[in-house]
Design brief:
The chain is an all-alpha fold. The protein has 9 helices and no strands. It folds into 2 domains: 4-95, Rna Polymerase Sigma Factor, Chain: A, CATH 1.10.1740; 104-187, Arc Repressor Mutant, subunit A, CATH 1.10.10.
Length: 188
């Protein structure tokens, strides 16, 4: 996959004057409008900064443009986009040369917060529940967190398996195990 730094001026000129430029650009823009937010959320869930996540998104859609321009497979482009984003985020974290601890509270906290209750006792119980569930999410292995994030973004099990490079059975077991842990914590 080419990055912005590796595109030559002749390659850009050839792209600018290709007859099907507008069709490819329209398709990339359609995918951008549909998947920018989910890809950004997924990238941010790894604990990288918003600036770095935006760079990842730019690289993903540049890769999509180059992929479509070279007339490669268009099968399951949604899964392909998440796979490219996943790989770019891992590269970005590695390039930053520091281990970013993935915290589940950033990406799940908003989803788990209950609406403010009318009385303090109900609000306290809701906060304790959220803390229990977030604590479970924080101790999950990274692969389980990734499976859960991708499922939360609406990807199917096969797409998750493709994005993470694991088997369909491993995705199923991961999500089953994770949901079981969350249910047990919620009953406590």
């Amino acid at each position: 996959m080419e990055s912005i730094d590796h595109i030559s001026l002749p390659a850009l000129a050839a792209t600018a004057f290709s007859p099907d430029r507008s069709e490819i650009e329209c398709e990339v823009m359609r995918f951008f409008e549909e998947f920018r937010s989910p890809l950004l959320r997924y990238s941010l869930s790894f604990g990288i900064s918003v600036h770095d996540a935006e760079e990842v998104i730019q690289e993903v859609f540049l890769a999509l443009f180059l992929h479509l321009r070279s007339e490669k497979s268009r099968k399951n482009l949604r899964g392909w986009l998440f796979r490219v984003a996943h790989n770019q985020v891992l590269r970005k974290r590695s390039a930053l040369q520091h281990q970013v601890q993935v915290t589940s509270s950033d990406w799940m906290g908003a989803a788990l917060q209950a609406d403010p209750s009318p009385n303090p006792e109900e609000q306290l119980f809701a906060n304790l529940r959220t803390q229990r569930l977030v604590a479970v999410l924080r101790v999950l292995p990274e692969i389980d967190q990734c499976c859960l994030r991708l499922r939360a973004e609406g990807l199917r099990y096969r797409e998750i398996a493709s994005v993470l490079g694991i088997s369909l059975g491993a995705v199923s077991m991961s999500l089953t195990r994770t949901l079981g842990r969350l249910l047990r914590a919620d009953r406590s």
